[in-house]
TrEMBL record:
Subunit structure: Heterohexamer of two PFD-alpha type and four PFD-beta type subunits.
Top-level taxon: Eukaryota
Organism phylogeny: Eukaryota, Metazoa, Ecdysozoa, Arthropoda, Hexapoda
GO cellular component: cytoplasm; prefoldin complex
Entry keyword set: Chaperone, Coiled coil
Presence of the UniProt keyword Coiled coil in the record: yes
Coiled coil: 87-121
Originating species: Bemisia tabaci (Sweetpotato whitefly)
One of the Pfam families matching this protein, by short name: Prefoldin_2
Name of the featured protein: Probable prefoldin subunit 6
GO molecular-function terms, A-Z: protein-folding chaperone binding; unfolded protein binding
Family affiliation: Belongs to the prefoldin subunit beta family.
A Gene Ontology biological process term: chaperone-mediated protein complex assembly
Length: 123
């Protein structure tokens, strides 16, 4: 078995494992953001039910601060828009990682086949 082939195989395997780790991390981020998006959708729904002259409070640290309902709605809309943008970015990252993993898997298969051929050639 060639030392060069073995080193290439080890490097591709390391890259593949790193890609899998990044994929898992990204999927966890997506789940977290989806949860936040659902929470904000519930808040938006509640804010739509109240009148413009109602009292709304925003929790900032340990303090409740009075906020206008219109301002609260705008804040929730902006937050939801930001979260949706982040979800889109993460979905693009996942797609890219899928492509990368497929490529690395193909390289791994090729290198393993090459190693088998090299081992069969040895007496």
């Amino acid at each position: 078995m060639s030392e060069e082939t073995q080193q290439k195989l080890q490097q591709v395997l390391t890259d593949f494992k790193a890609s899998q780790k990044q994929y898992s991390k990204t999927v966890a981020q997506v789940r977290k953001l989806e949860g936040q998006l659902q929470e904000n959708a519930a808040v938006k729904k509640e804010l739509e039910l109240i009148k413009d002259d109602a009292e709304v409070f925003k929790l900032i640290g340990p303090i409740l601060v009075k906020q206008e309902p219109v301002e609260a709605r705008q804040t929730v809309d902006k937050r939801m828009s930001y979260i949706q943008g982040e979800l889109k970015r993460l979905e693009d990252t996942i797609s890219s990682l899928d492509t990368k993993q497929e490529s690395l898997q193909q390289k791994l298969n090729e290198l393993q086949a090459k190693m088998v051929q090299e081992q069969q050639k040895q007496p």
